[in-house]
Amino acid sequence: MTISERAYLIGTANNRQAIIPCVISSRVVAGKGIPIAAICGATLFLCRHGFLNHVKHTGDSLELFQSQQGYTGQDLYVAAQVVVDKGFITANETAAIEFAYHIFKTLKIDSDKEIEKWFDNFKNGAVRTL
Q1: Which superkingdom is the protein from (predicted)?
Q2: Which of 3-28 are b and which e, b meaning 16 or more Cβ less than 10 Å from the residue's Cβ?
């Protein structure tokens, strides 16, 4: 299985012309069980298009999601840095390292031990003082 078959990363779309192809592509990918990862504003994209109405998720704020027409996933919102559920990896704007960690784990890009070492290094720093 190639990486493109194992994960689909989505970013924010500032260009309105790009939104329709993104929605269609996202629905196809989700329908095939390929993981979708979204951070910051990309979680809002998933919210606006109904992807978060049936999976546990997080993002920049519940209030922001609740302001979107058609959002019914408020009972599934988790106030956390990252949430992984049913093939969706969602993260708030301050969770870049945790977000990458969960993507790496999902993709199995290395052994669990090496991924843990990477996470520890980037989360806590390479140089530590007592």
Answers
A1: Bacteria
A2: eeeebbebeebeeeeeeeebbeebee
The encoded tokens of residue 5 equal 């078959």
The encoded tokens of residue 39 equal 């951070």
Give domain status of residue 129, yes or no. Answer: no
**Closest Cα partner for 26 from 14, 10, 40, 2?**
10
Candidates 63, 72, 102; CA nearest to 85 is 102
Question: Could you report the per-residue pLDDT of 57-92, keeping only the tens digit for each?
Answer: 999 999 999 999 999 999 999 999 999 999 999 999
Query: Do the Cβ atoms of 83 and 76 come closer than 8 Å?
Result: no
CATH of the domain at 118: 3.40.50.880
Q: Which residues are tagged catalytic?
A: 40
Structural domain span for residue 21: 3-124
Beta strands in the chain (DSSP E): 8-9, 36-39, 82-85, 88-91
